[in-house]
Amino acid sequence: MTDGLILGWEEWVALPALGLPALKAKVDTGARTSALHAFDIEPFGPVSRPKLRFAVHPVPGRTDLTIACSAPIRDRREVTSSNGESELRYVIETTLRMGDTEVPVEVTLTDRTNMAYRMLIGRQAIQPGWRISPADSFCQPRLGYDVYHTAEVKLAAPQRALRIAVLSREDNYSTRRLVTEGEERGHTVEVIDTTRCYMALNALAPEVHCDGQRLPRYDAVIPRIGASITAYGAAVLRQFETLGTHCVNGAAGITASRDKLHAHQMLAAARIGMPQTAFAASPKDTDNLIALVGEGPVVIKLLESTQGKGVVLAETRTAAQSVIDAFRGLRANFLVQSFVAEAAGEDIRCLVVDGRVVAAMKRTARGGEFRSNLHRGGRAQPVRITREERETAVRAARVFGLGFAGVDMLRGHDGPKVLEVNSSPGLEGIEQATGKNIPALLYEAIERRVRPAPVRKRRAAAA
Ligand code: ADP
Ligand code: MG
Which residue has the least CA distance to atom 6 on ligand 1? Predict the structure, then answer.
């Protein structure tokens, strides 16, 4: 039903496909095409189907309320505004809603901070049979800006195409799965080599550059930062965090979880079960250190070990002493842990996505080996975990604030014992073992979080 509508000179409208449930618009019959006030307007996606990502402050004067939108690009054309200036603008097509009426409209995007109305409705949107009553205001149902502060705006969020960055240096199974699955869902996924990024440290407008260009705005960043570049990767990630980009895992959580000692301290503080663990700097303390973790065999671990490479089992006290002496001689940092013999060369890897265990596998060490890492020849199979194990995994991921984590634990006599929390868990082993589509579950979580863009503070100067 579009006939007989009467429009005043200003009206409340909605652009539901963009996730904008309420805007005050001015009816401007002097203009042909409608216009929307947007900023950070950036094209993305494949050249055959280009899209536009932009942000809108739907409430005039409220620069802290930002809605990120995306839409397919229809055109790019020269537009002359009422003040006679001409400008090359992107054109999108979307749906304009007033009351119960919905009509398709072409909208040009322009960044004019001083526009009193976020939207101008041009002649092209006015349907045959409609009448303009220039002396009246709000002839159509009134809306209000309250919707932006309620859950409604989240529920009404459109399935928009997201622009996502995977920070990774490697073209491996996990990266490829993240790219193909993201594109499958209509998103654009760009893999960025963290070590090629450089940063402009500026209090007002933080930026990340890569290969001579400023990186665009992303809706989300999936960090896959290798252990060898943790510090630099965390710095790049912090820059994205400052920009307000949704990062699946944060820099602080990645850094803390990578350092075994720091990680165990944080897990202990959260009262999460773990093997008896001790640490010392002075050689004089070696005996006491071993005594601290108990009588039996001990496991000695380099603080930055991954893939089981720096993990040694010492069956006797003498063996432990000589391994510790050797590590000290190399000035390596390590910790000493009681050996959880009852785990019998098996550990459990729980994959946690946004506070939920989405997959779990049991890894069994090959014969004669106590380390169950797949890189050490371990075998993986799906496993049913107990409720206690599930809760432990979720809590361990939460300790580091990780939205995507692999939590490794041993099955001890007295409950689960967490060994480590991995912030870049591999996808191949767990997908093969469980048959689950892990990236799809991860993207569901990202979509929930960034549609529409969460309300965030922007500095007035950057707005
Ligand atoms: P990495 O980071 O190098 O993988 P982990 O701490 O995860 O180091 O240890 C590697 C493997 O060694 C674990 O997956 C587990 O199978 C075994 N392991 C580690 N610590 C213990 C322990 N305290 N008791 C028994 N087995 C252990
Ligand atoms: Mg491990």
Answer: 419
